[in-house]
Amino acid sequence: MGNLDEEKILIKLDQMDGYLSELRQILPDNYEDYETIEKRRSTERLLQLAIETVIDLCNLVVSGLDLGLPAEENDLFNKLAEEQIITERTQDTLYEMRGFRNILVHEYASVDNRLVYETAKGKVEDFRRFAGEIKELLKD
Question: By residue range, what is the domain housing residue 86?
Answer without folding.
Answer: 6-139
